[in-house]
Amino acid sequence: MDRELILALRGVTCRYPDAPRDSLAGVSLEVRGGEFHAVLGPNGSGKTTLVRAALGLVRPVAGEVEIVGRPGQGWSRRELARVVGVLPQREDNLFPQRVRETVLLGRYPHLSLLGGVAAVDRAAVDRALVACDAADLADRWLWTLSGGEYQRVRLARALAQEPRLLVLDEPTASLDLRHEMELFELVRTQVDAHGLGVLMITHHVNLAARFADRVLLLSEGRPAGAGAPGDVLTRDTAERVFGWPVSIGPFEGRPQMIPLRLRKESP
Amino acid sequence: MKYVVLVGAALAALAAALLVGPANLPLAELPGSAIVWQLRLPRAVLAFLVGGALGVAGTSLQALVRNPLADPFLLGLSGGAGLGAVAAIALHLPGPWALPLAAFVGAVGAMALVYRLGLVGGAELDPRILLLGGVAVGALAGAITTAIVSLAEATELRNAFLWLWGGFSGASWTTVLVMLAYAPLPLGVLVAAARPLDLLALGEEPAQYLGADVPRLKRIVYLAASLLTAAAVAVAGVIGFVGLVVPHVCRLLWGRLHRTLLPTAFLTGGILLAAADTLARTVVAPRELPVGIVTALVGVPVFAFLLRRWTVS
Amino acid sequence: MRRWTVRTHLAGLVALATVACARGEHATAVGPAVTDDAGRRVALAAPARRIVSLLPSFTEILFAIGAGDRLVGRTAWCDYPPAALAVPSVGDGMPPNVEAVAARRPDLVVLYRSGPNATAAQQLERLGIPTVLFDLNRLDELAPAARRLGVLTGRGAAGDSLARAMDSLASQRPEPLAPGPKSIVFVVWDNPPIVIGAGSYLDRLAGLAGARNVFHDIATASAQVSIETIAARNPDFIAVLSDTATPPRYAGRPEWRVVPAVRNRRFLFLPGRLFGRPGPRAAEAVRELRRVLEATP
After folding, report:
1. CATH code assigned at B147
2. pTM of the model
């Protein structure tokens, strides 16, 4: 199936002002509809910069970004928000709000200046809540939610935008096992059932290897490997990039990485 | 429903302002009285407009600096206005409009300086820089004001400080018309920015991802809110707490989405200030309290109560 | 033997102390002494011969009691009588320039009692210069000031005479004004409106001239009121301290024109140097006010 190219980065290089080195150097990436793309790498390897460059928050010094065939610069914020839904790492919550209100924020890119919230918007909110298994949370206050519930609500907000591409920046960072698995399953369902493209930054190499179709491994801003998880996650590559001895073994056809303990000197 | 209540309360406040006053006019005389038409009515209308402007400006600035404890005068505007007013008096600038215009120019100057301070560090309109810069500019303006006061003749400047404490005693139909001609543009701009302001509460990056053009939004909101505040100071001196307390009261009662919050803040601010002015005129009759003192005396307990609720929740 | 030595020493000390006290009393009995309005006892070795006056009213009083020739320093505001202009100025006096005052080598400095002046007085005292602080806000405070300045300058008779004149002025019952009672308001500032109340000199002058200050019920010297209150009390005249006859800038504004006296341009222009401060020419001020009230219809 020839799936549509939603996001394309070609040879993108970025450098923050006064930084000693490039935070991204010559990175290329293609995310298509119905594809789950994971970005892996140690801290400081440029993963969040990649998201910012893809979405126009950071201007690359070299290379180009294209979203659905148009150059990244050609998109206004509103237009882009109708196509790409993002779950950033951090956000503030200044004032108490209810879940339904938060998810409704995802409809803002679709609302006209003078127009109100229409039935189609409310329906999109309901669908998003159901898809994220959060329909029963709709009337709860945000500050009463657990970590896992909160992430599901944020995901629902991104889905309410009715995007073609979902970008998630370390969405399971503080979640327990069950909520982490639930989130990955939710995302996978969106890809399989609704043809969404997904770009996920994560530290969880093993889950990424099992759920993602393609993986980009970054090391100090440079691509250390791109392709199917089995091709990218070899023992040599992993040890070089993560700087730690590992063992790679298969599970359900996907490579799983187990970090080894340092050998003690035998007496 | 809430708008019915608010508009009703606004009309009640205006009626009270017209009926009550040191002149003790009997009801029958009111419709024909010059005191009502030339003094009480323009004063009540001006108080309402200024209160509304401060309510909206305060709401927008709290969203902009992402700090619910922000007040329009936190950004150095009151210091700038005071400096302008004192300079106008010390320089004996002619004409009845010298004082308001100078205060306006001073306030706008302070706004520009605070903005410029933010640009220097490459942190355009970064909330922390705004707040710190506002304090710094306010202190600088205060120091220059004190220098002028100490070097020039004493008595007139003492009266300038009374003006600065806030009051509507100079209200006239001309001032009302100026406000009516000037205020709708910045008010309209802020109401149009209502949805992006909702998004800004999530943080600048998340707001951009949800479609807000954040750099442009911050500039527009900063400019419009500062211009509204500068106009309020120019016609009525520095009136504190309205811009701080009104957004919170409205948030508690009617929610935090700006499409509702901005109009309710306008109406609530107007009602509050019109009522405060009526109190200022009557509580120590025949004398008058500066309105800024009444809003502070009422505002501080309300603020303390809100603070408790906010820290508890 | 020891007890005898101690007793002698003790007796000697007591004798010495008695002589010292006597000499001290003897010393104060010679020079003039008064208690000033800061509660301090001010005692001079001899009547003051080099005086610095830091208030125009004190300058006027000193000239009026014949001690004007002893002035060696005045403020820049002291312009009456004309002879005062020949005295060197020590600045505007707000606050007093202690160095400039000390440079005149005075043996008495006369100050109006206020916070900054009390500090300046302390500094002058540290330099060994005697100072005296008087209140001078009201008509009633002129007589005590005149009396005490008379004592300090050795012109006691003149001081008493001026004081008696001030007392008789203060107790005067004014003749009713012709053709009828007149009411006035003193507007000092327009935005916000500030008027003069019962605590002030101007209010007293009005009363002595036979006019009624419509804000006589306010106890303080000045107060902020609303235009509406002024309109409601409808004074016959608006008194303004001004050396020219141009109507004040608020006279043309529509909200002020609600006050009938503003609408009808019924202003009284009172020259600042005669009416602005309590002084020996208070009687002249009262006469002038009365004349203007009767002359204007």
Report:
1. 1.10.3470.10
2. 0.83
